[in-house]
Design brief:
Helix content is about 65%, strand content about 5%. The chain is globular. It folds into two domains: about 1-30; about 30-115, Arc Repressor Mutant, subunit A, CATH 1.10.10.10. The protein has helices spanning about 5-30, 35-45, 55-60, 65-75, 100-120, 125-140, 145-150, and strands spanning about 80-85, 90-95. The chain has about 150 residues and is mainly alpha-helical. The two termini are about 35 Å apart. The protein contains seven helices and two strands, in the order ααααββααα.
Length: about 150
């Protein structure tokens, strides 16, 4: 295969794997979708423990509208609290509730087992090369956040 064909394959594979991982993850998790769970994980990793919706959108690399829609669903499920900012009347701050941390704790073992199963046929060397590749793609797309939070 020539390089262009391989690039097209990798690009398409990332999109297809993303869809398949979402379906797979949604089956494993209870009460949350994989995207909702991942957004909660990202928020838990943020330095600011009471971030605005805009900050969460920037951190997660998606639009404010997408984040707000997911946050509203998480608020209805009582995983987060959304409140007006004390410093900017136009902004809304988000804080994780005890239910989120309980959910993380309750599902940690299941998540670890699922990840181990998913990556079981991949060698340490392959994992390292894949990580390096994704690091470069994150840099290309301007998302240095993952590198900063290793």
């Amino acid at each position: 295969m020539d390089r262009t064909t391989i690039e097209e394959y990798i690009f398409g594979s990332i999109l297809l794997l993303s869809n398949k991982m979402q379906i797979w993850g949604d089956k494993i998790l209870s009460d949350l979708t994989l995207k909702q769970w991942f957004l909660l994980v990202l928020i838990s990793k943020m330095e600011n423990k009471n971030p605005t919706i805009k900050e969460i959108a920037e951190f997660s690399g998606t639009t404010r509208q997408n984040v707000k829609k997911m946050l509203e669903q998480l608020h209805k499920k009582k995983y987060i609290k959304i409140q007006s900012s004390k410093t900017d009347s136009r902004a809304l701050n988000v804080s994780l509730l005890k239910k989120t941390f309980d959910y993380f704790k309750e599902n940690e073992k299941k998540g670890t087992e699922a990840a181990n199963q998913m990556f079981s046929e991949i060698t340490d060397e392959e994992m390292s090369v894949t990580k390096q590749t994704f690091d470069k793609l994150h840099i290309f797309f301007g998302n240095h956040i993952l590198e900063e939070h290793k």
